Amino acid sequence: MTKIDVLTLFPEMMEAVLGESIIGRARNKGLININCTNIRDFTKMKHGHVDDGAYGGGRGMVMAVQPVLSALESVKRDDIKPFVIYMSPQGKVFNQEIAKELLLKDHLVFLCGHYEGIDERIIENAVDMELSIGDYVLTGGEIPAMAVIDAVCRMVKGVLPDEEAFTEESHFNGLLEYPQYTRPEEIFGEKVPEILLSGHHKKIENWRRRQSLYRTWKKRPDMLKTAHLTKSDREYLEKYKGKRRKTAKFIDEEIK
Questions:
Q1: Strand partners, 86
Q2: Would you put residue 78 in left (φ > 0), alpha (ψ -120 to 50) or beta?
Q3: Residues 12, 40: contact at Cβ < 8 Å?
Q4: Per-residue tens of pLDDT for the chain, all 256 residues
Q5: Same CATH fold, 175-255 and 2-153?
Q6: Which CATH architecture has domain 2-153?
Q7: Domain formed by 175-255, architecture
Q8: Which residue, among 103, 22, 39, has the nearest Cα to 74 in the 3D structure?
Q9: Where would I find the beta strands (DSSP E) of 58-114?
Q10: Domain map of the chain by residue range?
Q11: 69, 107 in Cβ contact below 8 A?
Q12: Rounded to whole angstroms, how far apart are CA atoms 107 and 127?
């Protein structure tokens, strides 16, 4: 079972999201153990305060050291050292490769900051990884933590119907996902690509792979630098390099 602890000032906010949908059902089945701890419960400061002034002055407050360290200590287990993640705009930008790395950890602890953040000495001595979900600043670490937890937990065995439910999605293998279609067969005057109605699984597989390649080349060409590409993939991309089309319908004819 994957064990995750979240240290936050707003546990209800975390539970409202992580208690629903796929992740919520996985928790109910016992596939994932997510516990949200309120840092405020550990403060020894008057009136339940959890912030303190910053040395050197300046605007804003810093999360108080004592309640943060006490909350961290409360989730430690004797048998396994937790892997502590601090959600911070200064951290490494989160991606699918990091999600797969975190999946291998036995015990994850997410520390959600607020105000002007936490004491630097806590980051240096008690945090294993600083993570960011993008180059922008949010009001706290809860929303980023939710995003990371969701990305990791959906890969836990049994959470999704089968492994292909996530291995074929955007970013898992360094490419964007191929386009999806459902009923009816025609909307806005456009029909579902014929190849998807053919029942020819090998051709459908080839079509989807090339659509993924084309979409990545068109929308996120930067991803191709690190994507897991085969010789055939590279030949395909070289063949269509320089072409600019609104859609990739020409792939249909090529694979027929």
A1: 111, 130
A2: alpha
A3: no
A4: 679 999 999 999 999 999 999 999 999 999 999 999 999 999 999 888 999 999 998 888 999 999 999 999 999 987 889 999 999 999 999 999 999 999 999 999 999 999 889 999 999 999 999 999 999 999 999 999 999 999 999 999 999 986 544 445 545 578 898 999 998 999 999 999 999 999 999 999 999 999 999 999 989 999 999 888 999 999 989 887 766 554 455 566 566 5
A5: no
A6: 3-Layer(aba) Sandwich (3.40)
A7: Orthogonal Bundle (1.10)
A8: 39
A9: 62-63, 83-93, 107-112
A10: 2-153, 175-255
A11: no
A12: 13
AA identity, residue 220: R
Question: What's the token pair of residue 78?
Answer: 């004797």
Q: What is the pTM of this model?
A: 0.83
Q: Which of 63, 85, 84, 69 is nearest to 10 (CA)?
A: 63
Tell me the C-alpha distance between 76 and 220, whole Å.
41
Q: 3-state DSSP call for residue 2?
A: strand
Helix 142-153 to helix 21-28 angle (10° resolution) is 70
Task: Supply 147's token pair.
Answer: 């995003």
H or E segment to which residue 116 belongs: none
Separation of alpha carbons 22 and 160, rounded Å: 8
Q: Which of 90, 84, 88 is nearest to 69 (CA)?
A: 84
